[in-house]
Amino acid sequence: MPLSPKSVLNNAVVRAALKQAWQDSNPGVTGEHEEGGFVLQDAANSLSILRWPKGLQDSIFVSLHRGCRIDEQDIVASFHTHPNTGGDFLQEPSETDKRAVRDDPDLKGPAYVGEFVISQATIYLITPAGQVREVDDTQAVFAE
Ligand SMILES: [Zn+2]
Predict the structure, then answer these.
(1) HEC letters along 28-66
(2) Which of 2, 15, 79, 136, CA to CA, is 20 to 30 A from 122?
(3) Cα 107 to middle of ligand 1, angstroms
(4) CA 96 to ligand 1 centroid distance, Å
């Protein structure tokens, strides 16, 4: 049975990886850059993380993921950070972010729940259909 977005987020491996990505992206108003990656699930249902190569200030290179799989593992989620905490910077997922998920045929596997976008205050989810919703409070997730 596929995992729910919440249960992916509740996984300790995933939480630690999202927190690490957030810290690595050097959040603030200068010198920040996006980080991201995939959450993978193996045949024994355990989750692991594949980080993408380091991004530029507001873009990122997504690793190849044909058929929503990496090697023998299913992609269950993707994630990236929005580390610019300045007030005039968009915190929620951008139109480009939504399109990137919605229009990617290789992000449509049965196990894929969507892409988490981590901002200072809120963790958003872009569903495979490109809809956005808030799934959790960032600082609450990182405090656990
Ligand atoms: Zn983004």
Answers:
(1) ECCCCCCCEEEEEECCCCCEEEEECCCCCCCCCCCCCCH
(2) 2
(3) 16
(4) 7
